[in-house]
Amino acid sequence: MSTQIPLPALADVTAAFEEVYPPEWAASWDAVGLVTGDPEQRVGKILFAVDPVAAVVDEAVSWGADLVVTHHPLMLRGVTSVAANTPKGRIVHRLIRAGIALYTAHTNADTAAPGVSDALARAVGLVGELRPLDPDTTDPEGRRGIGRIGSLAEPVVLADFAARVARALPETAPGIRVAGDLDRLVTTVAVSGGAGDSLLGAARAAGVDAFVTSDLRHHPASEFVEQLGGPALVDTPHFASEWPWLADGAAHLADALGRRCGPDGANVEIRVSTTVTDAWSQAFRGV
C-alpha cells in the first residue's frame, strides 16, 4: 500500500517565495504575483522560466508542472479580454485547463539582493562583494537596487571578456554585441539584467571598464561610446541576461519552502527551463 506524499498548497508556496522576493519591492508600474491558480491547490512540480509564452506552457504541460514561475509578467499592461483567440488569453486558458498556476516575480527579483543582476554578475565571472549600480534608496542596508558592480579575478582584454559572456549565457540567434576597443583591459564591470540603456550614465559614473546589459538602442549607445573615457559596452539578448537568475530563484524557493513547510516543502520538485524564449529566432548576415 503506497503512502501519498504530502504537498504544500499554492498559497504556502507563494508565501515562501515572497519571503525572499517581497512584492512590495516591485516598481509601481509592475505587475507581480499570482496570475492564475487556486491558492488551495497542491503543488508538487514547479517550473522556472523567463517568459510566459506558448513554448514554456508546452514544457509545463509535458512535464506535469503545477506551477510556473516566470520573471516577465503576462499581464504587465491592462487587457480588456482573455478570450482564447487572443495571445494572452490563449496562455490563460491553456494554464487553467491544465490546472497550472502562474506566478510572476519581475522588478522585485531585479532589485533583490541577491537578485537577477547578482546571478548575471556571477555568471560572467565577477567575484567578491557586489554593490548596486542604481541603489534602492528605501533599503537601509544599501544592498538592494538595480544592476551590480564588481570585479574580475584577473584582468582580461575586452575580446576575451565578451567571449566569456557569450559562453556563460544561453545561445541565442542575435548573439553578443560589443562596442569598444577589443584590446582594452577589463577589470571592473557593471551588469544589469534586462533593458539597461537608462543606466548608461550610472555605468559611466561608476568608472567601470565594461557594462553588460541588454536592449541597448542605437543612438544612446553611439553617443555613449563617442565620449572618451567611458566603459566598453557588451549588449546581450534580453532573455539571455535574465536566464541565470532562474537557478538562483529556484534554489531560494527550495530553501524557503523547507523553512516554511518542513517535509511537505522538501517533496516539491523544481526545474529550470532551458527553452530559449528570446524574441529573435534567427539572424542573417550578408556575404
Automatic annotation (TrEMBL):
Domain of life of the source: Bacteria
Sequence positions that bind a divalent metal cation: H71, H72, D110, H238, E242
GO CC annotation: cytoplasm
InterPro entries from the UniProt entry: DUF34/NIF3 (IPR002678), DUF34/NIF3_sf (IPR036069)
Any one Gene Ontology molecular-function term assigned to this protein's record: metal ion binding
Keyword terms of this UniProt record: Metal-binding
Cited Pfam families: DUF34_NIF3
Family: Belongs to the GTP cyclohydrolase I type 2/NIF3 family.
Subunit structure: Homohexamer.
Protein name: GTP cyclohydrolase 1 type 2 homolog
Origin species: Nocardiopsis algeriensis
